[in-house]
Design goal:
Distance between the termini of chain A: 30 Å
Number of domains of chain B: 2
CATH superfamily of the largest domain in chain B: P-loop containing nucleotide triphosphate hydrolases
Number of helices of chain B: 10
Order of helices and strands of chain A: HHHHHHHHHHHH
Largest sheet of chain A: none
Largest interface: A-B, 27 and 28 residues
Number of strands of chain A: 0
Shape of chain A: globular
Oligomer: heterodimer
CATH architecture of the largest domain in chain B: 3-Layer(aba) Sandwich
Structural class of chain B: alpha/beta
Number of domains of chain A: 1
Radius of gyration of chain B: 21 Å
Structural class of chain A: mainly alpha
Strand order of the largest sheet of chain B: 5-6-7-3-8-9
Strand content of chain A: under 5%
Chain lengths: 281, 288
């Protein structure tokens, strides 16, 4: 009886969050950017060009996914971090939490609904690319499409969890926004393109550099998305030996999916714990 | 029904509720009064499980628990300020139906009596409604539920006089529900309540049962002498049915006992004009 009530409450919260987000401008903008980006890449004929051996849909997907890596986390963490704290400041939480919905259902219902919302435009864009490939008689790399979908889902869960955590602990929208931008900047800075390469140049302790690269969910996503098209990781240089020796291609792809998901869920759980233990309004 | 034992809530080092002890019996209708910052809203938030606190709050003899969804299923709440919900009114009503067991038919009836056509506002975002419309919708949702305990935080603040009167009637019809009503206008809710609790700096400074002395159908004899004639005050007293003597300096007549607080509220507004005031409990039979 209780579990049926919980399921009904969970469904109710998901519907409420879905309809609330579908009405919001952030979602319209987010969907327009992610789907629009794919349309732009298709129309600029990027699938017809060849760079470093990538051509056709593979070239299109690798370009899209690298750009997505920069946009997606920022969108997720900024819009999520301000959601609950914004509701608290506005007085929405005071009213809505007076209804007999358990906090667990309230929090996780919102989390799952947001995850679905965030993934939908990316998956729609990938489906659009596949449809375009079929129409143009390109070979559709279905395995890559599926793996990209998994990587995007893992990255989304990671930053959504961080966003929920920040939203739970921040006492004002400004603090939540500032913290989310700081975290995003830090993770971007620690990519192999920026700080990480400087650390390698400065002959920083190799184990520490590898640990930073493995711990950074953005780097995990970037490396795994490259590994699919460049199994020898030629683009990555000598660091590729460490990855391939320690993990192998399949092992690293599993790491890049499991680790960010687990990290996101851990942050979300920590956020829930903090949310449930502190003043709700 | 509700037992509050040594409830304390501090913000930083300031105690907003200070070892407050109180019990609410089934059927109690309580006017909660007190100046700004006395702790009324904080008390409500503790009852709704929205704040951490020291002390105990238990419903119907159950184990003390901070936020109990089962207890919340029995509590209807109207906040002091309507939240800026972006959802359409129809979605809020649907949420109240599915999430809190509110009845669509009852809500439609209540909204109609308050002067709101639910079909007309169904698709309008809640935050775009006027202050009064928002308050009417929140009252509709609260009274559309089969709650046996109602918490109202300044519920009539945004209502026009007609809606206010309907609201008071609607509350009076809920005979089986207990109520905790915070209001700065005691006279407005006086006819509804059987108990008045005053908070000051987080403590109960007055807890008085009033119903026995203010029965419906009984009257009090009023006699007022003014320092000088005052036409607006005279018009207000005439509205209560008092008759004028000595060129607008004296007023006498009966006032329903159940309306005493509301009448005193009127007098409070013109307190500086009143030279003498007499309020007798027994009315001569000819008047009553």
């Amino acid at each position: 009886m209780t579990s049926r009530k919980s399921r009904a409450g969970f469904g109710l919260m998901m519907r409420l969050e879905l309809s609330e987000s579908l009405r919001s401008r952030w979602f319209h903008f987010y969907a327009a950017v992610l789907i629009g980006l794919m349309v732009l890449l298709i129309f600029t004929g990027i699938s017809e060009s060849r760079v470093l051996g990538f051509t056709g849909l593979s070239r299109l997907l690798v370009t899209y996914i690298q750009i997505t890596m920069a946009i997606l986390p920022l969108f997720i963490v900024v819009t999520t971090a301000r959601s609950m704290v914004g509701d608290r400041e506005a007085g929405n939480l005071e009213y809505m939490l007076a209804f007999p919905i358990s906090l667990r259902v309230w929090y996780w219902g919102r989390f799952v609904a947001r995850l679905l919302l965030i993934l939908t435009p990316v998956l729609a864009a990938l489906a659009l690319a596949a449809a375009y490939g079929l129409v143009r008689a390109h070979e559709v790399p279905w395995r890559h499409v599926a793996l990209y979908s998994g990587l995007v889902a893992a990255l989304s869960a990671c930053f959504l969890g961080i966003g929920f955590f920040l939203s739970s602990i921040a006492r004002s929208t400004e603090v939540a926004l500032g913290a989310s931008l700081l975290i995003w900047l830090l993770l971007v800075a620690l990519l192999d393109l920026l700080l990480l390469s400087i650390l390698i140049q400065q002959q920083f302790i190799p184990e520490a550099v590898i640990a930073i690269a493995l711990a950074n969910p953005l780097q995990a996503f970037r490396t795994a998305s490259m590994i699919l098209f460049d199994p020898q990781l030629i683009l990555l240089g000598p660091a590729s030996y460490v990855i391939l020796d320690a993990f192998g291609v399949a092992g690293y792809v599993v790491w890049a999916m499991v680790y960010p998901t687990a990290l996101g869920l851990a942050f979300a759980a920590l956020g829930y714990w903090r949310f449930a233990k502190s003043d709700l309004v | 029904m509700i037992t509050i034992n040594r409830l304390s809530k501090r913000f930083d080092r300031r105690a907003v509720l200070d070892e407050l002890t109180l019990s609410v019996k089934a059927g109690d209708r309580i006017a909660l009064i007190g100046s700004n910052g006395a702790g009324k809203t904080t008390l409500f938030r503790c009852l709704l499980g929205q704040y951490r606190y020291q002390g105990e709050v238990s419903f119907s003899g159950g184990a003390p628990k901070r936020r109990d969804a089962q207890a919340l299923a029995r509590i209807a709440f109207v906040p002091q300020l309507p939240p800026p919900l972006r959802m359409p009114v129809g979605e809020l009503l649907s949420f109240a139906e599915k999430g809190a067991g509110a009845s669509r038919a009852v809500m439609t009836d209540i909204a109609g009596r308050l002067g709101i056509d639910l079909a007309e506002v169904r698709n309008r975002p809640f935050w775009r409604l006027s202050g009064g419309q928002k308050q009417k919708i929140l009252v509709t949702v609260a009274l559309g539920r089969e709650a046996d305990f109602m918490i109202f935080d300044e519920p009539a603040a945004n209502l026009d006089p007609a809606a206010r009167a309907v609201f008071i009637d609607l509350l009076a019809e809920r005979r089986n529900a207990s109520m905790l009503i915070a209001s700065h206008r005691l006279e407005e809710v006086a006819s509804l309540v059987n108990r008045v609790i005053e908070l000051d700096r987080g403590r109960v400074v007055l807890d008085d049962e009033v119903i026995d002395r203010l029965k419906a159908g009984e009257f009090r004899a009023v006699s007022i002498t003014l320092a000088e004639p005052h036409p607006p005050f005279a018009a207000a007293l005439a509205g209560w049915g008092l008759s004028e003597q000595h060129g607008g300096l004296n007023y006498t007549g009966p006032v329903p006992a159940g309306e005493t607080f509301r009448f005193l509220g009127l007098l409070a507004r013109y307190g500086s004009l009143i030279e003498t005031l007499r309020l007798d409990q027994d009315m001569p039979e000819t008047v009553a």
